[in-house]
Specification:
With 160 residues, this protein is mainly alpha-helical. The chain has helices at residues 4-31, 38-75, 82-107, 127-143, 145-157.
Length: 160
């Protein structure tokens, strides 16, 4: 069972991670707008709204993935390292992002890739969103590494 102190620590660390990553996600979303068709088809206003919406989605994914990693570390002692939490966060973020991209582009038609978007050949997922989910979380994890290490070391010692 996850006690209230550990839950609070996981929430605080997840909020910190998402907060540090959020401006990076916003910049990335705006920068890669020309790789989607919305830029040419619907103009600047719709593109900015799409970037805002997708940034909020990225922030939510960031919060949930590291929160899941930290709760998993409470439950599974083998995951109580910064590397394990980082790996869990990155892998789950990539999986969620890939699933959202496949569903949104190929099944639901919510958005489309423009001709400049590099696409991986197996699932047809745009490389820019996947790259965002490597570069940004790694950068944010690097920036919060000391606090994350402290939170995990408290968990190893059994502190609340």
């Amino acid at each position: 069972m996850v006690g209230p102190g550990r839950l609070r620590t996981a929430i605080v660390m997840a909020a910190l991670f998402a907060g540090v990553a959020s401006p990076m996600f916003a910049i990335w979303e705006i920068a890669h707008l020309p790789l989607y068709t919305i830029w040419a088809e619907k103009g600047v206003r719709a593109s900015i709204w799409a970037a805002f919406h997708c940034t909020l989605g990225d922030i939510f994914i960031a919060f949930v993935t590291i929160f899941g990693a930290l709760i998993s570390a409470v439950i599974a002692p083998g995951l109580r390292t910064v590397r394990a939490v980082a790996a869990f966060t990155l892998l789950s973020g990539l999986i969620v992002t890939g699933a959202i991209e496949v569903a949104s582009v190929q099944w639901l038609g919510r958005w489309a890739y423009g001709p400049l978007m590099p696409v991986e050949p197996f699932f047809g997922i745009g490389l820019s969103p996947l790259a965002a989910w490597i570069v940004i979380p790694v950068s944010a994890l690097f920036l919060i590494r000391r606090r994350l290490a402290h939170a995990i070391s408290c968990e190893r010692r059994g502190a609340p």
